[in-house]
């Protein structure tokens, strides 16, 4: 091309080769082309020459800019065949057509290359890069030969399946200070503290399930400050997905089950969300029958432990009226009872399987630390061999190798310390099959134990129940629950709607008994009588004088006051028998037979007699019969006093 320009009469010729190896499609910066255009704009160039005009540009923006600048300053374009003068209309038309053809030719070449690439991917033979845990072996994937890497990745899937979420698995790794392998840009494997993205990528990548996948991402239209935007495509739009294409760390079915479980942990309208620490059993499972939205949960009470379900999303989002709301304690209790009746028959078999699994399960943390120790000892031995092979006189080299050896030995000591601490903190646990069988037979006790994790109970509920549709029957004052069980069965529950504070209120029988006991006893004696009969408060506590006083004030029950003149309108059994001058046993038998009117509030409590009832003809007949019948003991003298005060 220099000779051609010389033959055409140009003497000063400059060759620009800065853009060798750079595409003219416009996706990269071309310093040589930009310098040439700048010189043309300044009018310093009489002709620009290339072997083909496609060498100048293969995109319309750069090509039209070059032609326009050459037209303005009257610069010609020269290729191997002819000379073009952009100032002439015919030459501009021809150059425009050639530029469009060059751009189309580049697109055609790209399409042919991509078509060949996609066809190879559809056959499952296009292996671009291998994620951590795999290596490229020709046109397929193989597991990394490092057993430490294999066991670490297998442990990730085991923990996610066991704990139910990727975040809980991440917290488990952080709790035990275990590292996970990551693939560096140069292809080497490094061990780092795991992050949520690391675990989530392993779960979402089908390669770990033994499947070949290609075309999971695409370039989004437009550009951002960071460059080209990459978006993930739905699985239905992937170019290739071939299960069982190579050996995976879990089976394809198990990998799909784990992926579905983790995806369901996102609290959306379709998914229940991950089980949380709260005591509410049905969080994320209840849906409103009236509007179809999920019920939200909040906790109330002094300790924030009383759940309440309400349909308030419409009110919060669109200012719509609230649909339904009800307390969650009674609903949770009803679902618990139904659930335990379903899983109860299989509790014994589950306990036996748990015993066998616990006996066969290895200490996963101990095994992981053992692999870390083996790798650390290998690194220390390798550092020693490098140090030993160096020339002792060359201190510049041996000093650095000695420092590396010391660092490796310090890492070995650190891992050994972790193993010793783990062994000291993990005592050997002996599992008694008899105790497991007893717990399985009493599943309700295990379920209600304070040590039972609420998240575990929620996972059991979600395993058996797909969804619960709730509504309120205002006419019957009932909560209506339609339970959709896994498997297609449905059941309906109707629960009485509780008023505010009704669950922890005092029993109506206790209130009625106290109303009668205040006729003859003070608050201190009433508390003793209630405790002797095994009665408790609404919160399940024992009765005290203060609690009896508070309960009376709440229900407006009058306090016991002795009569000022000494004539009590109500008498206990001893005083009533003393008034009739008969034995207390005789009067009690008569009251039990219904011969005289009396009140007996509690089984293990006092008898209460009205003074007016002791002056009736029935009471006099009982007194006469007792005196005439020698079987009945006679009463004591009225002036005789007792050493002990009695209320019975």
Brief digest:
This protein is an alpha+beta fold and 648 residues long.
Topology diagram in text:
Elements: H1 2-7, H2 31-41, E1 47-49, H3 60-73, E2 76-78, E3 83-84, H4 89-122, E4 134-137, E5 140-143, H5 147-163, H6 166-175, E6 180-183, E7 189-192, H7 196-204, E8 212-214, E9 217-224, E10 227-232, E11 240-242, H8 252-264, E12 286-288, E13 296-300, E14 306-310, H9 313-318, E15 325-327, H10 329-343, H11 347-360, H12 364-389, H13 395-425, H14 433-441, H15 443-448, H16 454-464, E16 465-473, E17 478-485, E18 490-496, H17 508-517, H18 523-532, H19 545-555, E19 570-572, H20 573-580, H21 584-592, E20 608-610, H22 617-628
Helix pairs in contact: 3-4, 5-6, 5-12, 6-7, 11-14, 12-13, 18-19, 20-21
Keywords, please?
4-stranded mixed β-sheet; 648 residues; 20 strands; 45% helix; alpha+beta
Percent in strands: 5-15%
Largest sheet, if any?
Answer: 4 strands, mixed
Query: CA-to-CA gap between the ends?
Result: 129 Å
Assign the structural class, choosing from mainly alpha, mainly beta, alpha/beta, alpha+beta, or little secondary structure: alpha+beta
Major β-sheet strand ordering: 12-16-17-18
Shape: elongated
On the 0 to 100 scale, the average pLDDT is 84
Summarize the structure in words.
This protein has 22 helices and 20 strands. By secondary structure, the protein is an alpha+beta fold. The chain has a four-stranded mixed sheet with strand order 12-16-17-18. Strand 9 and strand 10 form a beta hairpin. Helix 3 runs antiparallel to helix 4.
């Amino acid at each position: 091309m220099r000779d051609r320009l010389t033959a055409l009469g140009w003497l000063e010729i400059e060759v620009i080769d800065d853009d060798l190896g750079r595409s003219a499609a416009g996706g990269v910066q071309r310093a040589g082309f930009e310098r040439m255009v700048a010189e043309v704009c300044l009018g310093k160039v009489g002709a620009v020459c290339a072997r083909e005009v496609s060498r100048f540009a293969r995109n319309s923006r750069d090509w039209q800019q070059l032609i326009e600048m050459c037209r303005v300053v009257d610069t010609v374009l020269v290729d191997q065949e002819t000379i073009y003068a952009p100032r002439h209309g015919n030459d501009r038309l021809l150059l425009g057509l050639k530029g469009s053809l060059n751009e189309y030719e580049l697109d055609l070449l790209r399409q042919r290359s991509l078509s060949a690439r996609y066809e190879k991917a559809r056959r499952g033979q296009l292996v671009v890069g291998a994620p951590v845990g795999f290596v490229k072996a020709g046109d397929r994937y193989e597991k990394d030969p490092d057993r430490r890497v294999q066991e670490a990745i297998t442990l990730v899937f085991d923990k996610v399946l066991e704990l139910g979420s990727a975040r809980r698995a991440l917290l488990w790794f952080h709790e035990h200070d275990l590292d996970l392998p990551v693939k560096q840009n140069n292809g080497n494997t490094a061990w780092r503290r795991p992050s949520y993205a690391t675990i989530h990528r392993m779960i979402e990548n089908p390669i770990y399930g033994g499947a070949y996948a290609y075309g999971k991402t695409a370039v989004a239209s437009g550009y951002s400050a960071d460059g080209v935007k990459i978006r993930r495509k739905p699985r239905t739009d992937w170019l290739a997905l071939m299960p069982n294409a190579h050996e995976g760390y879990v089976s394809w079915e198990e990998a799909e089950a784990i992926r579905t479980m983790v995806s369901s942990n996102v609290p959306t309208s379709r998914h229940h969300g991950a089980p949380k620490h709260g005591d509410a059993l049905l969080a994320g499972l209840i849906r409103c029958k009236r509007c179809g939205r999920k019920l939200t949960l909040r906790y109330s009470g002094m300790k924030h432990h009383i759940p309440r379900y309400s349909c308030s999303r419409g009110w919060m989002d669109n200012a719509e009226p609230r649909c339904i709301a009800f307390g969650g304690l009674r609903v949770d209790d009803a679902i618990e009872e139904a659930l335990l009746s379903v899983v109860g028959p299989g509790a014994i078999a589950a306990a036996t399987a748990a015993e066998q699994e616990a006996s066969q399960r290895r200490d996963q943390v101990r095994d992981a630390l053992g692999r870390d120790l083996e790798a650390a000892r290998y690194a220390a031995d390798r550092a020693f061999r490098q140090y030993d092979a160096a020339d002792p006189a060359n201190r510049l080299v041996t000093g650095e190798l000695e420092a590396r050896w010391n660092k490796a030995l310090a890492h070995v000591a650190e891992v050994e310390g972790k193993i010793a601490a783990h062994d000291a903190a993990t005592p050997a646990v002996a599992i008694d099959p008899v105790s497991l069988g007893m717990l399985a037979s009493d599943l309700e006790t295990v379920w209600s134990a304070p040590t039972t994790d609420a998240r575990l109970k929620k996972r059991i509920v979600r395993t058996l129940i797909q969804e619960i549709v709730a509504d309120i029957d205002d006419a019957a004052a009932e909560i209506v629950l339609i339970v959709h069980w896994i498997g297609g069965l449905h059941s309906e529950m109707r629960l009485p709607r509780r008023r505010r504070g009704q669950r922890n209120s005092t029993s109506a029988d206790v209130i009625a008994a106290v109303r009668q006991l205040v006729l003859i006893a003070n608050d201190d004696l009433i508390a003793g009588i209630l405790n002797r009969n095994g009665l408790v408060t609404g919160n399940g506590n024992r009765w005290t004088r203060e609690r009896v006083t508070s309960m009376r004030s709440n229900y407006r029950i009058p306090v016991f006051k002795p009569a000022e003149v000494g004539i009590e309108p109500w008498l206990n059994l001893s005083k009533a028998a003393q008034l009739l001058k008969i034995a207390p046993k005789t009067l009690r038998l008569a009251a039990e037979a219904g011969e005289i009117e009396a009140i007996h509030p509690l089984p293990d409590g006092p008898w209460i007699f009205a003074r007016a009832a002791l002056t009736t003809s029935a009471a006099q007949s009982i007194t006469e019969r007792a005196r005439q019948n020698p079987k009945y003991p006679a009463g004591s003298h009225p002036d005789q006093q007792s050493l002990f005060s009695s209320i019975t």
